[in-house]
Amino acid sequence: MIEKELLDKIKKRLKEIKTIRDLSNRDFRFKNWHASTINLLKALPPNFIVDLNDFKKLAFTDTKYHRGKKFFNPEDDTRYREDLDSAAKILKKITSTKEELETKRESIPKKKTAARKEIKRKPAKRGISAGRKKPDKKVKKTKE
Fold first, then answer.
1. Angle, nearest 10°, between helix axes 49-57 and 28-42?
2. Which single residue of 83, 95, 110, 127 could bond 58 by disulfide (Cβ 3.0 to 4.6 Å)?
3. DSSP letter at 49?
4. Between vectors from CA 58 to CA 14 and to CA 33, what angle results, nearest 5°?
5. DSSP string computed for 86-116
6. Nearest alpha carbon to residue 90 among 9, 6, 10
7. Residue-wise pLDDT tens digits, 76-106
């Protein structure tokens, strides 16, 4: 996959956050967005592994344990929205670093590569060296 195409797809996922903000973490459209975004981030080079792990750690759900509150409203989606904001930050960070890498690549002039010198190597010795020889087994004669 070409990096520019990958960058465009990540930007598209970033724009889709606006449409899924009004949904909940149980909605099919959100689950589809989340799974496809993770698969897209897995295609990134290995230097983005920290961002991928940060995105995977986002739960988008509340633990439903609140000290001092007897009743918790499951319709409360504050954690979902906070994690969506965090996901947007991560995706923006990835797209900005990708753009920086592309501009750096364009600004660095290409170096001329020298022709490789062929090195003649001696074939490996296949015999048993003196240090690795096994001692001869001495057979003891028994008296009859």
1. 160
2. 83
3. H
4. 40
5. HHHHHHHHHHHHHHHHHHHHHHSPPPPPPPP
6. 10
7. 678 888 999 999 999 999 988 766 666 666 6
